[in-house]
Amino acid sequence: MKYVTTPIYYPNGDPHIGHAYTTILGDVLKRVANMNGEDTFYTTGVDEHGQKIQAAIEKSGLSEQEFLDNKADVFKSLFDSLDIQYDFFVRTTADKHIKVVQEFLQKIYESGYIVKKKYSGLYCEGCEMFKRESDLDEHGNCPDHQKKPIVVEEENYFFRLEPFRDWLVEHIKNNPEWIQPKYFATEILNMLKEPLEDLCISRPVSRVKMGVPLPFDDKYVTYIWFDALVNYVSSIYEKPNKDQLWANSVHLMGKDIIKPHCIYWPIMLKAMGLEPVHKVLVHGFLTGESGIKMSKSIGNVVDPVKVINTVGTDALRMFMSTNVSDRDIAVSERNITEFYQLMANNIGNLHMRSCKLLEKYKSNVVPDAKLTDEDSQLLTQISNSLSSALKSVTNFAEISALSNALLQACSEVNSYVSRKEPWSMAKRLPETQDELDSCLYTLMDSLRIIAIALYPIAPNTAKKILDTLQIDQADITVVNVVPAKLQAGVQIKEASILFPKLAVDSTEK
Ligand code: ME8
After folding, report:
1. Catalytic residue among 30, 52, 97, 142
2. CATH of 2-283, one of 3.90.1150.10, 3.30.360.10, 3.40.630.30, 3.40.50.620
3. Residue 128 pLDDT more than 80?
4. Could you tell me if 277 and 266 are in contact, meaning their C-beta atoms sit under 8 angstroms apart?
């Protein structure tokens, strides 16, 4: 069984499209794994402690519990409308999670890697992290939050990271696939060229109330990252197969949080005598049109709920899957709407024209055809390309490759129809009967193959196509992405429009 995780998101505001991005990609990985016969345990959730949440709660006038419950529901409802099949929704205020965090703290404290000392440093409230001068931009701002850090001086507990640096460097070098894409492994190796400073893992209760109390000093709560990272272990803590899950674990995230995940987290685990996560997959940022990272603090976010209301879930899922990259991508409602139109012209058009042709020339019954060599080759070609794309989806680049292979397959079949002109064949019946039957069968079987391969990315659209073809959901497996499996004689249903025309004003944004 595979264990797939997203970051747990800060619920100090409503979820934005960046949260939808990673969570959609995790869902695609989960569905592909399932289609390949591999079970998955997929977690996502919210990171409910820390100063930012505390400030948001105070501002809201709600009780802590009410605020957090509401926000957890907002995130869940977004994930439901995105068709995310998560198996567990993490909340770091849950007792079970807190207990595991305290176990980590206590054990690492007893091993002597945690020391108490006075410290003065630059603290970014957005990152909830101490920063070095070299982490800031030329104006002295945190590059992610465009804000100057504040000077904080206090006595705190520190986790000694330096004793683990050589081990971590070796681990990265010996496991070139650990962090993907490799570019980010190089970035981490560069960070590891300098000695690692001790990590401040406590915050005085006088400053931060919302956190997990240190089990060895109740005047402090733990640093939010020490708490949050442990979710990956606490979520499977009581599972009988947790070791097997951990050995097949994949953490997904944006490039903003590779340092905690690829430096602090493996060292925390090592100090506990545990293995690092099996794989880390990293994507770039979604930016606003100006190229600046979208974030709640900057206020340049695209609202995923609004996007879903305009173009639906599948167009958004496919947009993310096609464009996922280690580089940043500029996102606006307009380019998602343009993508919707592309899907309408590509998949939507193929579906509608194929079904209409079958209706017109075969009264919706799939013919029992002897395939021409050309038709048989086309089916073999698209099924080979899609099945190999599906079998190799283990990282973000391969999700994008699958998505592009799907768009490519639809284009090929669309140009095949235009080239073959079944309507001309129909004018020369009966001598063209075999050719026409072969062509119509090829169209319907292509739709079947494409819909199965589309399922992990755009599950609703795929299910609509398969439903039209009277194909059972149990048949959505990679094994069925082979040519000529559509049963002759089946009466297909009337095709529905997959991507209806949008209201004019939504395209003018
Ligand atoms: O960092 N572009 O939470 P967070 C791409 N609680 N991805 C984005 C994005 C954007 N503009 N904005 C958000 C935290 N994301 C911590 C994580 S995990 C133990 C603790 C996605 O709400 C992306 O996955 O700031 C990014 O890494 C994550 O949300 C940050 O979410």
Report:
1. 142
2. 3.40.50.620
3. no
4. yes
